[in-house]
Structures are given as C-alpha cells and as structure tokens.
Amino acid sequence: MLKGINPLLNADVLFALRAMGHGDDLIIADTNFPSDSVARQTRLGRLLRIDATAAEVAAAILSVYPLDTFVDDAAARMEIVGQPDEIPPVQAEVQKVVDKAEGRSWPMIGVERYAFYERAKQAYCVIQTGERRFYGCFAFRKGVIPPDQD
C-alpha cells in the first residue's frame, strides 16, 4: 500500500500509467470484451487486470491520470449495438466518475462497437475489470500535467 494511491492501482497498472505519454489511450474493459487478444496488439502487449467494477476502476485510474484537454474524444464509451444514444447504468456511473475527476461536466463520446475494438488495438494498454454488465468498456486518452507555477 502507498499513501495517497488508490489500492486498486497495482504495480503493473501503475507502471503502465507512468510509462504512457500524452495522447496515449487506455482501455477499461468489461469481462465480456476480448481483452486478452486485443491487449496483445497494444503497445504494452499484455493484459492488465483490476478486479472491480468499471466505475471503481475508472475512479482509481482518474485519481492519477489526466485526461487530454486538446481533443474531443479523450473520454469514450462503447455504444450499444443498434441503440447508440442509449446510456446504460454502467456508463452513467462512469460518466459521474469522469465528471467528478475533472471537476466539471465532461461528456463521453460514443464509439461504435467495432470502431471501439480498432481504437483499443491502437491503445497503449487494456485493463480488464470485473465488470459483468454489458457495455462497461471505455477509452481514456492521456493528457498532460502542467509544470508547477513559480
């Protein structure tokens, strides 16, 4: 355990988050996502795991991970097939986490299922969660942390 670090953030996840740079994508995936096969195609090349709900994992990650303010798609969710505008409870919960972490409303864009798979393959890494609800899949693009003001 470390002071000030969410205990869900294990050593492998912390390593990946620290190694990522501005513009790199992180995928948070539910238990039904093809996480292992997709993770093998990412920059990291292996699957990471945090066995908790999508909202708990998002809260832990966003406690140390800045979202990219230079793009409109820094926070994204997988759309429901045939119902792209519907927001299931798992996505509403993660939306609240994103808004709280950023201190303002930060809408997630919807990404069609197969387009989301392609985005995930180009990501830095995939973190599979213990989330069993459908469509608990999210992409977060890393932003920057400004220098301290003198």
UniProtKB/TrEMBL annotation:
Any Pfam family the entry gives: RbsD_FucU
Signal peptide: none
Entry superkingdom: Bacteria
Gene3D superfamilies on file: RbsD-like domain (3.40.1650.10)
Keywords: Isomerase
Reactions listed under catalytic activity: beta-D-ribopyranose = beta-D-ribofuranose; alpha-L-fucose = beta-L-fucose
Name of this protein: RbsD/FucU family protein
